[in-house]
Design brief:
By secondary structure, the chain is α/β, with parallel strands linked by helices. The protein has 2 domains: 5-118, Rossmann fold (3-Layer(aba) Sandwich); 123-226, Arc Repressor Mutant, subunit A. It contains 9 helices and 12 strands. It has helices spanning 13-25, 36-46, 62-70, 86-94, 107-118, 124-127, 157-168, 176-183, 192-206, and strands at 5-9, 29-33, 50-54, 77-81, 99-102, 131-134, 137-140, 145-148, 151-153, 174-175, 216-219, 223-226. The strands form 3 sheets. It has a 5-stranded parallel beta sheet, with helices on both faces. A 4-stranded antiparallel beta sheet has the order 6-7-8-9, with no helix packed on it. A 3-stranded antiparallel beta sheet has the order 10-12-11. β7 (137-140) and β8 (145-148) form a beta hairpin. α2 (36-46) packs parallel to α3 (62-70) and α4 crosses α9 (192-206). The chain is globular, with a radius of gyration of 18 Å. The termini are far apart.
Amino acid sequence: MSAGKILVVDDDPQIRRVVRVILVGEGYEVVEVRSGDAALLKFREFLPDLVLLDLNMPGMNGLETCRALRETSEVPIIFLTVRRDEEQKVEALDAGADDYVTKPFGKRELVARIRAALRRSPSFAITGPNTFVSGDLEIDFEARKIRSGKNAVRLTPKEFDLLRYLVSHAGKPVPHRELLQAVWGPDYGDQSDYLRVFITHLRKKIEPHPARPQYILTEPWIGYRFAGPE
């Protein structure tokens, strides 16, 4: 029985070969293509459960491909990238990706990221709040609708899970490790820099002034706290 269907998009045949060996060994069904244009065609035919997408490709690059996929699908998308600076990672998330893996990557890291992205219903989702309203921010967790001011906000599945966990613990500092393991799974815990990228991007979407956040507050040396309504 297949663990899931994964579309691998990368112009480097060696990367595609390595990824295929890893994923097939973990029980996934894999289809690979070498370009963004081919990915859009194969996506409609293969209907994958997740897309692994190279950021730097000739022709239609990864960002353009991701945006095109997001027009019609909420399937998890993980970028494969050699870029390490935070601004470019935020740009990738802004295009609609759920996650990113920096090349070179190990088997354990890649598989953990895939499993985390495919984990759609974390345990806290059932007991978390149904709605949140404060000032110009309105969140309907059941309908998965968010409004900041007059603008509808669209989150990736992992951004949504992260926000819900923070809101469900409103007013309390949540440590980095707890957030990572609750939202991404037990294989996470020490990637505080990774979490910071997601928090930065989430603030850009829901905060009126992201540089001066009023909802997602940093607790130095601990983690983050969601400021509930006063």
